[in-house]
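## Example pair
The file below holds two records. Each record gives the amino-acid sequence first, followed by its structure token line.
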Amino acid sequence: MNRILFAGLMLLVVLSPLPLGSNRAWSWSLCALVIAALAAAWAVANAGPRGQVTRFPQSVLLCLFALACGWVLVQIAPWVPAAWKHPLWAMVADVLDANLPGTISFATDDGLTALMRLLSYALVFVLAYQLCRERNRAQAAFAWMTLAGLAYAVFGLYVYWSGYQPEWFFGSKVLAHDVRSTFINRNHFVTWQGLALLCAIAWFYQHMARPVVKPYFVPQDRDARVEEFILKAWKPLLAVLLMVTALVLTHSRGGFTSTLVGSVVLLVLLDRRGSAR
């Protein structure tokens, strides 16, 4: 059951950028429904004594997340002090000559939608944390994210270099000439692509560091080792190069800087993994 749920989780994650980055009400609502169903199925499947449930390492993370969700509820609650409420509520009440309760937020429906999306992201994290504690699933998750990031990068680069504007996809929108793949906003795409690139670095590191078991061992000279490395690494390096190219051509300085910092931190941690596994 956990293998089926893992496959469903990865399909949701890699397909969610396809409908314009799930930046429409129908798409983010569908994603929220699917992840809620997967989370409910996981809870039922692992409810017994033989369930594979891993305890979260830090309860402070749950407390901070609960505070963020609680603050959203406070902003749409009518029982807050009158001084906290948005002044437009009073203006609308005067115009309509009606008694409106008023809230901190002037768009309570948007607040509930934001809370739904935030909880959906949390469920994705919880399922990934629980299901990917198993080594093979973690490696498979890196592979899924790498291939998906490569596919979206190649599509974005094709649209960018060919000048082809897929009206069947974006409609009649006039978009700036930046790599954005299937996303409307280039900053959203650079966030996705940066995270996919981090997954690619981790997956390729595991792939390159995996020892090759041979029935015999023949010492190799330097040229032979370099040749073996090139034959083994040219495909992963080509994929990383394409993903980095798409990242740069988004022309998003903040997204590129964040990805660069994240990559440096990841490489430092990978370098230290021998002493602290």
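Second record, same layout:
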Amino acid sequence: MALSIGFDVYGTLVDPLGIAEDLRSEVGDLAVRMTALWRAKQLEYTFRRAAMHRYEKFGVCTRDALVFAERSLDMVLDDATRNRIVARYERLPAFADSITGLQAIRAAGHRMYAFSNGEPESIRRLLAVAGLLALLDGVVSVDEVSSYKPDPAVYQHFLKRAGAPDKDTWLVSSNSFDVIGAAAAGLRTAWVKRDLSAVFDPWGIEPDLIVPNLGELAVRLADRHAAE
């Protein structure tokens, strides 16, 4: 039986912290600190905008978070430099297991989608550069409903786009808030625990699977399918 599987993009298929090496040429030794702060604030801004019903596109949240990170580190970048840095968000590196993991899951006959906070065209460019776009059956963006994960509306939107029953639709993410949001909306879930020290949010909502990488996910999905 084929499953419909939505893969979170940032942090699951590609590494948003991988931009730190690119930033060294712009900000030197502050690159790692700036990247971590930028990413944390980017997510915070999506949460706040969804809660306030004041939607702006992911690119706006990304740029605003970069400005916050600059100011927090007593730094001021000119517009040209800021534009170059933001543009690199479409060239983030894929995790080492992303291509082979997606290939194995695709070979099992499952339908696979990118399901992201990012804008559709930006996600397509990002995935194309990372060598992942051709492995997926489509791109589903929260921009289509003008909200952000973990708003229940975005998961319902994915279910409609995937066109499969809840029990056959999965969300795969390294972000525990995303996994909890999807589970609460009725999807099956897999948490990709890329950081071995990561702690899953203790909300009493657990993922159906916990895996360290997408290769292991392919194996575990095959095992579950055989058992069912």
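Notes on the second record: The longest strand covers residues 111-116. The mean pLDDT is 95.
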